[in-house]
């Protein structure tokens, strides 16, 4: 999974959404679609990290929960992303 573009240059939204997932994961694909849509609407930045290349500690903590979504480094959701809840966190 690749890192995605930064927020638009003219955006003042300081938030960063990080999704920890893995290639071929349908829940990750669904979560990423929600994240991309919400971040585009609100001007927030998002990135995707591949758990298969994460350190052992992250693998142990999050493997059973992917996709795991963080907002500004704090765990926000796992397995599914609630669009309204994510929007509220980024405002």
From TrEMBL:
Pfam families: Glrx-like
InterPro entries the record matches: Glutaredoxin-like, Glutaredoxin-like_YDR286C, Thioredoxin-like_sf
Protein's recorded name: Glutaredoxin family protein
Originating species: Thermobifida halotolerans
Lineage of the organism: Bacteria, Bacillati, Actinomycetota, Actinomycetes, Streptosporangiales
């Amino acid at each position: 999974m690749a890192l995605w573009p930064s927020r638009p240059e003219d955006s003042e939204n300081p938030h960063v959404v990080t999704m920890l997932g893995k290639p071929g994961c349908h829940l990750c694909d669904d979560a990423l679609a929600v994240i991309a849509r919400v971040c585009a609407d609100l001007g927030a930045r998002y990135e995707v990290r591949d758990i298969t290349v994460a350190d052992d500690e992250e693998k142990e903590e999050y493997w059973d929960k992917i996709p795991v979504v963080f907002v500004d480094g704090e765990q926000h959701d796992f397995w599914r992303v609630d669009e309204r809840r994510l929007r509220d966190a980024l405002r």
